[in-house]
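ugh ok fine here u go
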Amino acid sequence: MKTQKTILSLALIAGLSLSLIACGEKKQEDHTMGSEDHNAMSESMDNMDKGMDMSGPATKTDLIDEYLEIKTALGNNSKEEAAKAATKLAENAKTISFDQLTDEKKSEVSSILEVIQEHSEHIAKSEMDHQIEHFEAMGKDFTDLLAIVGSDRKLYQQQCPMYNKNEGGIWLSDSEEIRNPLFAGKMKTCGAVKQVIEIG
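structure:
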């Protein structure tokens, strides 16, 4: 009787041991398969990223940001930074679309964007004086554009009466404070707010 109990106990222990070993191997196999699946998924996502442009289409926020970057760069007498922002602005002005507009407004906006693109391309490859000329001219086009498509932020149209032999020049700013970009880092406080462009 005692021998039978001992055999039964040994059989039970052996059975449990085999079960635990089998479970351990199954878990290890599951873990290994999970890693392979994860690696395959990562590789697939990498390939998708390479094949897709994740940045998405340009928005009016991009256009305004880049315009303001040019303004800041010119105010800091940095033709390189102005050129860099202008290159991005030219590309976005070429590719942006405003699908919500009527056909008539789309045509008008398209014409304005072509002029903004042309100004931007000149800024991207010119010396400082020429950059400033095109930037000042572009301020009028930006004002016209925002009158149609609206602005994503409050902007201030500012004017310096001394620019271009006292003919005056304008630009847009996201601050009421005057930081004149039309004199290559000089006469920074020359100007006044002429118009406020509200969000809309």
